[in-house]
Amino acid sequence: MPLKTEEMVLNMGPQHPSTHGVLRLELQLEGEIIKAVKPHIGYLHRCFEKHTEVMTYPQVIPYVDRMDYLASMYNEFGYAIAVEKLLGIEVPERVDFIRVIMGELQRIASHLVAIGTYGADLGAFTPFLFAFRDREKILSLFEMTCGGRLLYNYIWVGGVSHDLHPDFVRLTREFISYFRPNIKEMNELLSFNKIFVERTANVGILPLDTAINFGISGPNLRASGIKWDLRRDDPYSVYNRFDFEIPIGDGRMGTVGDCWDRYFIRILEMEESLKIIEQALDQLPEGDVTSAIPKRIKPPVGQVYTRVENPRGELGYFIISNGSLNPFRVKVRAPSFVNLGIMDELCRGHMIADVIAILGSIDIVLGEIDR
């Protein structure tokens, strides 16, 4: 007869350094093998959606920053587009270009955190230092523009709070020239490192049909082999003017949709973001960035849903207006929240150490999950 063992429940978090915030994973184990994973959330709950009901539309923007605090600029981007659609206003062309530049810089900064912390999770500390070194340069560009390094309140309804600093274009071009070789350096240091590959290849495989059924989006969906990116497939702002590729997982080191593919998609996306930023800088028009900002934002009665491709996937805003100065309801479709739902599916049958590799590969931010 086979040896039978009792199942054990093990709590990982909410203080565990690799849970990327206050997440508690309840692991149901048989020996070292995972039978089920139940994520427990709510330790960081900040009542964002309820707060919006007592704030005016412009006052909501600083709260939007604090959801996915590693992608604050893109949170503002999506919210501004939603309210502008509700108001029926068009922003100056220069504003659209600035938003795209800031959004793509934010995507790179966010991916650098994802890549650096992922390496640290699996025991490689040097890539973490290199990633944060490069991210600091992007944060300095943001600070030059609006004074903030993490939370910005920069993209306003109808425009942006400040025009670009006179040195911004030059310094951004210098950053692009500096950063391109560093992506190759990261590949040599981490991406193709033997230990890193063995920890991530063929681990946490997410088949495409499962990803679609779970509503997964962003790099996690594209790693499973489908070219779906809202910047191209449901364009907003001026993304339809730029030429860029949509990287997908190809199972280069193992199986399509494994942890390594999810990691490497973010490396490839940083290269594409650099292309978009370069094109936007080349085409950047002149204009007044505050001319379309309404003096009083009071949308008509109605509702709107808009979605954008933030660094973690589809970020959607559903806003209901009752004709007052405050939103009646703001509901956020947070990609981290949806992506976390796949943990049980990905972890079953793996070992405890693989939970760290799988969780890091889906790149969640708890501020967005507990919004």
Features:
alpha+beta, globular, Cytochrome-c3 Hydrogenase, chain B, 371 residues, 15 helices, three-stranded antiparallel beta sheet
Task: Report what the structure shows.
- This protein has helices at about 50, 60-65, 70-85, 95-120, 125-145, 170-190, 195-200, 210-215, 220, 230-235, 260-285, 335-340, 345, 350-360, 365-370; strands at about 10, 25-30, 35-40, 155, 160, 300-310, 315-320, 330-335.
- By secondary structure, the protein is an alpha+beta fold.
- It has a single domain, classed as Orthogonal Bundle (Cytochrome-c3 Hydrogenase, chain B), CATH 1.10.645.
- The strands form three sheets. Strands 1-2-3 form a three-stranded antiparallel beta sheet.
- Helix 3 runs antiparallel to helix 4 and helix 4 packs antiparallel against helix 5 (about 125-145).
Structure described in brief:
The protein is 46% helix and 13% strand. It is an alpha+beta fold and 371 residues long.
Topology:
Blueprint: E1 8-12, E2 24-30, E3 33-40, H1 48-51, H2 61-65, H3 72-87, H4 93-121, H5 126-146, E4 155-156, E5 159-160, H6 168-191, H7 194-200, H8 208-213, H9 219-222, H10 230-233, H11 259-283, E6 302-310, E7 313-321, E8 329-333, H12 335-340, H13 343-347, H14 352-362, H15 366-369
Helix pairs in contact: 3-4, 4-5, 4-11, 4-14, 5-6, 6-11, 11-14
